[in-house]
Structure prediction request, 92 residues.
Amino acid sequence: MAISNGTTSNHLQTPQILALAGEIDPSVTERTLEFWRHQGLLPHPERSGQDGKRPIWTYPPEAGDQLRVLLHLRQKTKDPNVLRAALWYDGY
Prediction:
């Protein structure tokens, strides 16, 4: 049973983020998202509830758009410094 602390429905959970990524690059996994968060290419999720012993993490609403832009940029380069600068330039 999931317990929420009032998170709005426009926040995205990890399965939703993975589904968005899968539309562009099906090879994206939870580990890939974790790596990109560590590189500063995606925002960090917030703990928004609990499902038994497992925490529920939600991303801010703009994370979906940022992920789409990141995946399109990665088709040109995989250099994290260039990607970070390009995301910053695009307003992320």
Observations:
- The radius of gyration is 14 Å.
